[in-house]
Design brief:
It is a single chain. By secondary structure, the chain is α+β, with helices and mostly antiparallel strands. The protein has a single domain, classed as Immunoglobulin-like. About 25% of the residues lie in helices and about 45% in strands. It is elongated, with a radius of gyration of 22 Å. The protein starts with a helix and ends with a strand.
Length: about 120
């Protein structure tokens, strides 16, 4: 009887843990599918050598993104931990120490903490 009680207790605990892991993984996947964001607009301000990037979260959940800009195939300083609430547009600034010139290519890679990615290519005017 004691051995049966131990086995029953163990299997109940294992089933509970397995169910909790399944529910958590399912919720993570659901949030990942509800996450949607895009670069709405990019502008380079020649007066202060600042690249302004507007990111719009049109998904149903808040997001945390990191932005990796590459200028003419060279990675520039990354901007991380940008929280954008659902339905919100956020402005992200990049300040350059030397000016960008006409036809410089800026490739933006935006990564969310849920592993969704958006790309945007901008050419300096």
């Amino acid at each position: 009887m004691t051995i049966g009680g131990i086995i029953w207790s163990y299997s109940l605990g294992a089933a509970t843990v397995t169910a909790e892991i399944y529910v958590n993984d399912t919720m993570d996947m659901l949030f990942e599918m509800q996450e949607r964001f895009d670069v709405e607009h990019v502008h380079y301000n020649t007066n202060n050598d600042t690249l302004i990037v507007w990111v719009y979260n049109y998904g149903e959940v808040d997001i945390m993104i990191d932005v990796y800009p590459t200028i003419n195939s060279e990675l520039f300083e990354t901007v991380t931990n940008n929280k954008i609430e659902a339905g919100e547009t956020k402005k992200i600034l990049f300040v350059f120490t030397s000016p960008l010139v006409s036809q410089d290519q800026v490739i933006l890679k935006l990564y969310s903490r849920r592993q969704n990615i958006a790309y945007y290519t901008y050419y300096i005017q």
